[in-house]
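Usage

Read records sequentially. Each one opens with the input sequence:
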Amino acid sequence: MSCLKDKTDEQLLQEMQEKLQNILPPFEIKYKAELVSKIRQIKKKKNALILGHNYMEPALFHFVPDFQGDSLQLCRQAAQTQAPILVFCGVKFMAETAKILNPNKKVLIPSLEAGCSLAASITAEDVRRLKKRFPGVPVVTYINTYADVKAESDICCTSSNAKAVIEHLNSDTVIFIPDEYLSKNVARETGKHIIVPTKDLSKLNDNDVDYQIIGWPGRCEVHEKFSVQDIENVRKQFHNDVTVLAHPECSPEVVAASDFSGSTSAMIQFVKNTSAKRYLLLTECSMGDNIAAEAPEKEMVRLCSVRCPHMNQITLEQTLASLQNEIHEIKLEENIRKRAEQAVRKMLEIH
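and closes with the structure output:
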């Protein structure tokens, strides 16, 4: 089941030192190697499976999960697993999605404090109000939402398949929630007109009819911080000899000024395959460290200094405690879970 090979503590420490020597100081690597070893031992004993998002800190990301990836990749792995216990090293909505797809398995999250500003920007009641205001319009919901919001939706999407999901619906108009910037970037990519109403839908002008995508004013507190000025400053500093990669949760202006935009896994793949020797990542900073550890021969410009405070709640210590004591279990109301599962599985059918 696990793609991690059994290693002695000495082998594990040596491997971590080789990969993380430019990322972490030696004493921290030694301390974290001891935690990683304990986690691996307990995981094997309990026949558990650990999923790790690309935003996990380097020691956890590279040496703990059985599977690493972005939201879509981890959704697919969660849907296929046979393990009785799943530990999701990511934020709460991700662990909820794993539970949605695995109702009979125990799904744990290392910290219940690992929320998400984007997921918190919209409620199930907001979705119901949108559907009432725009009757009959299909609702596409970004995976970065909680289960009750997914339950009010027709289909989910991730940043890597949002365009494909919208095209699959073949609808004149769609409601695309909750990320304002992602919806605007998809609208730009598909050539569709978009409106983003305020949360007070009563202020929406009935004469404003020239739209094909109805967005929502939710934003990621990390990605909204990047600006076009950041890109211009870096290009000037390196005489344009830098390749800029932006997550589609960045503003449309930032995405347009970048050389490439894609999901976290798409950015990782781009860096691995590009011939460019210097790159700038406009996304969460731990992912930058993870890529730097994988591609030490390439120079990463260290503007990527914004750490997600929610992802930062997931530590090796808490992962060990959650797995060891089987605490912080995700539980959902079955009615909500079933309805949310329909939207998630429809997404998984689209490649």
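Summary fields computed downstream for this record:
- The chain has a mean pLDDT of 92.
- Residues 40 and 64 are 7 Å apart (CA to CA).
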